[in-house]
């Protein structure tokens, strides 16, 4: 956000990225979403490059000589109309700020439709498009988003990218979006109803998304997986399927970037990418059970052939094997990877080349994407260090020691970008409990904590199956993103931050945002840089209790 935003009559002038917009109090503008817009620009810039490469390869396949004349290496520029470029629909545009930034900052755009159902919002879009002299790329549109998308389902009318950034949940727009997106096109979708997705009202989540959420410490990742599963099942109704490029949990919302393709055979694999989730009501152990399974069924004609089946279950007993409590069942969730590794690599290249003057949140984008790249992409969900130690009433073992014990024992472990104290690992939870049993030998829990029926009694009374190395720090225990002190789990972006309400007064919140950002900078400066890794690990745990998931105002509680 630029310094010196000024008021003009009842309008306020706001600068963000390359755009300058005039905003009235009654039109929605949320400064906290700058990270969301900056990140979307990086994603679309990368996607635009990939899109051109794919189109060029397609042309080459069709007619090699043609391609030489078409120019496979057309230089993509921002702010200039590219006849073969992206056709973007911003279906819920409010001030037009996002569309204007997309037009001015993403190379290789053909056209952007900036649509809103509110008359005053569309007037604001028109005014801002003129103010930014970007009429050659943006067409303002006054329509219901669904009507507009349903009118654009024929192949030649479809969009290359559709951005859905609604108030609350996006699910009522999905049916139109999956039908009006090009084959291989990109959907960029935000959901801000985190309280619902995080399990505060499971019945409401089921109504909106068709899945039951669980109150788990991994609720932010579960929210992403519920949204992704909802997009996938909406798409498969039309013989289309989804490939997630990037799925992010940030501040008070989630945002997913997925490509949509057409293919009946790929749709058949959909049930094997979705799972029900059992969570123990005592120790919170998580167990996933897929809806479908793929079995190799090679024939001479097709050695790659697979057979579709359903698993036998349930995958848990009627009582938890660790603590003897019963289970809750949630889901279905998307249990395939949340991100595409190849796309992430290319996206990070884009981010590295970005100008930090234009994208003010670039440091945070780089930090978050680096943590995401380090995530174990084949391991859904996670536990948290503080919660596991809390359940056993143990003094904290510290992140580095726990990660080291797992690595020494031959397991993989990573953080999740969604939680500062997350433990994402391919080790079964029985191994995590064993490591904590070893820790307990050195740091025993008080005898009066061993009450009948509580999970810690059942878990700590058992002997560990083996002795785990909780003393030596493993060389890989500290991931590069942490060693390099990247901006991994940012503080709250503003004092009274949140998704905003319909046509809010958040326009005037710039000052608040800046003051919170300054406070955060001061805090970051105070964090001693040369901390030993172990001290830093304790800081991580401590800081988690101050992390965004805890500080959300009551109205949008996303803690779980
Ligand atoms: C959260 S705001 C969008 C913010 C914007 N994308 C940005 O980055 O600043 C949601 C907008 O959706 C509009 N809206 C709500 N329902 C709609 C519908 N059915 N069709 C089109 N626009 C709609 C509202 O008028 C509002 O301006
Ligand atoms: Zn249990």
TrEMBL record:
EC numbers on record: 2.1.1.216
Chain coiled-coil ranges: none
Q: Which UniProt keywords apply?
A: Methyltransferase, RNA-binding, S-adenosyl-L-methionine, Transferase, tRNA processing, tRNA-binding
**Annotated Gene Ontology MF terms?**
tRNA (guanine(26)-N2)-dimethyltransferase activity; tRNA binding
- Kindly report, in one word, the top-level EC class recorded for this enzyme: transferase
Gene3D superfamilies noted in UniProt: N2,N2-dimethylguanosine tRNA methyltransferase, C-terminal domain, Vaccinia Virus protein VP39
List the biased-composition ranges (Basic and acidic residues): 55-65, 539-552
Matches recorded under InterPro entries:
SAM-dependent_MTases_sf, Trm1, tRNA_met_Trm1_C
What Pfam families has UniProt attached to this entry? TRM
Disordered: annotated span: 55-76, 476-560
Q: Which superkingdom does the taxonomy of this entry point to?
A: Eukaryota
The entry's family comment says: Belongs to the class I-like SAM-binding methyltransferase superfamily. Trm1 family.
- PANTHER family in the record: N 2 ,N 2 -DIMETHYLGUANOSINE TRNA METHYLTRANSFERASE, TRNA (GUANINE(26)-N(2))-DIMETHYLTRANSFERASE
Q: What NCBIfam families does the record tag this protein with?
A: TRM1
What's this protein's name?
A: tRNA (guanine(26)-N(2))-dimethyltransferase
């Amino acid at each position: 956000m630029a310094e010196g935003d000024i008021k003009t009559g009842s309008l306020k002038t706001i600068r963000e990225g390359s755009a300058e917009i005039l905003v009235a109090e009654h039109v929605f503008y949320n400064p906290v979403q700058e990270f969301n817009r900056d990140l979307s620009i990086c994603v679309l810039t990368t996607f635009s490059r990939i899109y051109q490469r794919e189109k060029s390869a397609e042309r080459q396949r069709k007619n090699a000589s043609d391609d030489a004349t078409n120019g496979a290496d057309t230089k993509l520029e921002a702010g200039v109309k590219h006849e073969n470029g992206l056709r973007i629909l911003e279906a819920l545009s409010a001030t037009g700020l996002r569309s204007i930034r997309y037009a001015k900052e993403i190379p290789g755009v053909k056209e952007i439709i900036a649509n809103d159902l509110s008359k005053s919002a569309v007037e604001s879009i028109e005014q801002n498009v003129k103010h930014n002299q970007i009429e050659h790329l943006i067409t303002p549109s006054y329509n219901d988003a669904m009507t507009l998308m349903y009118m654009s389902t024929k192949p030649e009318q479809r969009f290359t990218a559709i951005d859905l950034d609604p108030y609350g949940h996006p699910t009522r727009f999905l049916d139109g979006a999956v039908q009006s997106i090009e084959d291989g096109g990109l959907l960029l979708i935000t959901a801000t109803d985190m309280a619902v997705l995080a399990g505060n009202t499971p019945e409401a989540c089921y109504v909106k998304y068709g899945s039951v959420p669980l109150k788990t410490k991994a609720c932010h990742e579960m929210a992403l997986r519920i949204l992704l599963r909802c997009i996938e099942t909406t798409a498969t109704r039309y013989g289309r399927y989804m490939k997630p490029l990037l799925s992010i949990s940030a501040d008070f919302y989630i945002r997913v970037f997925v490509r949509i393709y057409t293919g009946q055979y790929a749709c058949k694999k959909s049930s094997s990418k979705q799972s029900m989730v059992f969570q123990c009501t005592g120790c919170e152990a998580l167990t996933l059970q897929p809806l479908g399974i793929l079995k190799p069924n090679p024939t001479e004609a097709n050695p790659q052939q697979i057979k579709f089946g359903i698993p036998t279950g349930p995958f848990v007993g009627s009582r938890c094997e660790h603590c003897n409590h019963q289970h809750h069942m949630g889901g279905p969730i998307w249990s395939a990877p949340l991100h595409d590794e190849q796309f992430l690599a290319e996206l990070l290249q884009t981010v590295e080349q970005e100008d930090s003057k234009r994208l003010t949140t670039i440091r945070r984008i780089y930090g978050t994407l680096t943590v995401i790249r380090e995530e174990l992409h084949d391991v859904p969900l996670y536990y948290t260090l503080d919660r596991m130690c809390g359940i056993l009433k143990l003094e904290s073992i510290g992140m580095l020691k726990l990660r080291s014990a797992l690595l020494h024992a031959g397991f993989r472990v990573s953080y999740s970008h969604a939680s500062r104290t997350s433990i994402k690992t391919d080790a079964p939870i029985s191994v995590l409990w064993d490591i904590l049993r070893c820790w307990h030998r050195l740091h025993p829990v008080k005898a009066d904590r061993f009450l009948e029926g509580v999970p810690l009694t059942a878990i700590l009374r058992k002997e560990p199956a083996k002795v785990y190395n909780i003393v030596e720090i493993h060389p890989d225990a500290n991931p590069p993103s942490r060693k390099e002190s990247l901006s991994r789990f940012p503080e709250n972006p503003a004092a009274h931050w949140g998704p905003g309400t319909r046509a809010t007064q958040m326009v005037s919140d710039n000052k608040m945002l800046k003051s919170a950002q300054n406070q955060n900078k001061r805090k970051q400066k105070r964090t001693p840089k040369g901390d030993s890794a172990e001290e830093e690990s304790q800081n991580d745990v401590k800081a988690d209790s101050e992390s965004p998931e805890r500080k959300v105002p009551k109205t949008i509680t996303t803690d779980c």
